[in-house]
Amino acid sequence: MLKLVFLLFALPLFVFASSELPAITEAKPILTIEQKQLRASFLGEWESLQNTEGGNIRRTHLTRSADGRYVVRFEFSNHDGDIVNETTEYGDWGVSGDIYFTIFKGWLKNGTATPSDPYDAYNYDAYKILRVTENTLVIKNLTSGNKFYYKRLR
Q1: FRET label pair with 89: which of 2, 115, 125, 131, CA 20 to 30 Å apart?
Q2: Where is the signal peptide (predicted)?
């Protein structure tokens, strides 16, 4: 009896899945040279200097390593140049298609790491890659809609 019930419910799902949905690749396709170059173009040291809605200036110094790690320092200063807040964070990063993503793993202070909560959804960000050149990078956060403009330092 249990087999009959299973067949009555599972068989229609199998038929739907096999006949109605588009076919997919057997495995993840090999990355093209362009896709590999896109990821490589994010490596190195980058800087962003942008006004905030709160009236401050946010300076971001970001270093991305080939092993997928990043360290970013944020400095918020008023228009007189006085630093009102600063923090250094670390985590993992990557590129998949036209999406750049980060996983915030914690803070760095005086050489000591303080881990973040890996269960907190706030620590995961995705960005649409809008423009990449040898010396400029423009990305848009998919949650906030903020656009970030970076220039390469090294």
Answers
A1: 131
A2: 1-17
